[in-house]
Design a protein that fits this description.
The chain is α/β, with parallel strands linked by helices. Helix content is 41%, strand content 20%.
Length: 128
């Protein structure tokens, strides 16, 4: 339904290293934030809860394995996925986007870049 307000986001972080500020930003945008701590919980939560979006710390992937992201895209093709990373290399960004992410945000810029990325992947334009 067009214009449906967002209701739920999965916040996935293996080490729970994301700040409460990030969670607060997401709660403001979505109302409900469900925390998960591993790739299996992310997939299970996405299938069961049908959230509007998943914000996933790249540390969820061990090494360069992005199989969790490909699996998430196959099981929940309409789910919007934003990947957060401490790594700024183009190769990391390219691999994440090719695996199916809708947006890539550096952790050091999450306070300023996360909500614009949310708006972008939701197709909202905040230009007045």
């Amino acid at each position: 339904m067009p214009g449906k307000p967002p209701s739920c986001v999965l916040l996935a972080d293996r080490h729970h290293g994301l700040t409460e500020g990030v969670r607060g930003l997401l709660e403001t945008a979505f109302g409900t934030v469900v925390m998960v701590a591993d790739a299996a919980s992310l997939l299970e939560g996405a299938v069961r809860l049908r959230p509007d979006m998943a914000v996933v710390d790249l540390s969820l992937a061990r090494g360069s394995n992005l199989g969790w992201l490909r699996g998430l895209r196959q099981r929940c093709p309409d789910l919007k996925v934003i990947v957060l990373s401490v790594h700024d290399e183009q190769s990391v960004r390219r691999a994440v986007m090719e695996a199916g992410a809708d947006a890539f945000v550096l952790k050091r810029a999450v306070a300023t870049d996360l909500l614009p990325a949310v708006d972008l992947v939701r197709g909202e334009d905040n230009d007045n």
